[in-house]
Design brief:
binds 2-phosphoglycolic acid, 12 helices, alpha/beta, eight-stranded parallel beta barrel, globular, single chain, TIM Barrel
Length: about 250
Amino acid sequence: MRRKIVAGNWKMNTNVAEGVSLAKDVVAKLNEVPQDVNLIIAPPFTHLVSVAEAIKGSKVALSAQNCADEVKGAYTGEVAVSMLQSAGCTYTILGHSERRQYYGETSEKLVKKMRLALEAGISPIFCVGEMKEERLANKHFDVVEAQIKEVLFELSAAEVANVVIAYEPVWAIGTGLTATAEQAQEIHAFIRKVVADKFGAKVADDMSILYGGSCKPSNAKELFACKDIDGGLIGGAALKAEDFIAIAQSY
Ligand code: PGA
């Protein structure tokens, strides 16, 4: 079943105490969020265990922002999916454009990460999206299709059924520029079609596809009203419980 999801990507923000306090603020406002809206928060690795405790027993799910492409061993600085699982994560963001751009995240690595996460019962929030020049050159459909083919097409339909896709145009992330609802809907529908052509209509229909990129309380309503937009991956606005909750009220 396709689900409404609002996920907060905290990126490299907050210290542990601030993170726990933000998580508690979100939990305290849960009665303002419609029942059928699923909330996910993705704090930095250092915060996971403490934030898991803060959201315990609530409907907020815990996500990591990345995971290692190896199971365990001599990989200094990396965090394995089994560790995320033991910290209480049920999701992990993978392929965020900041990781692709600044940390050399390739599709090849992403396939390994996606498989490991799925094997551990962790649902990837798989990010795709074009750069500004690619949008201007009208290449956004090709870019997004290639990102999906290079990674998702390496997985089985059963695996893909547990993936959430986040479409995040790079030019809209943290810039204050948002894709218009028409632009976003157009590419979300395209993504669903690419998934349907490969994995069948049921997998595509059931898949949640989130929009990300300067999504905030003032524009979430228009975006979430679109047929193929099932929610948002929220960066900046997820750092304020009030705004994050307001976005979750925007369906
Ligand atoms: P933003 O970030 O909402 O701050 O633009 C979104 C994201 O990168 O996930």
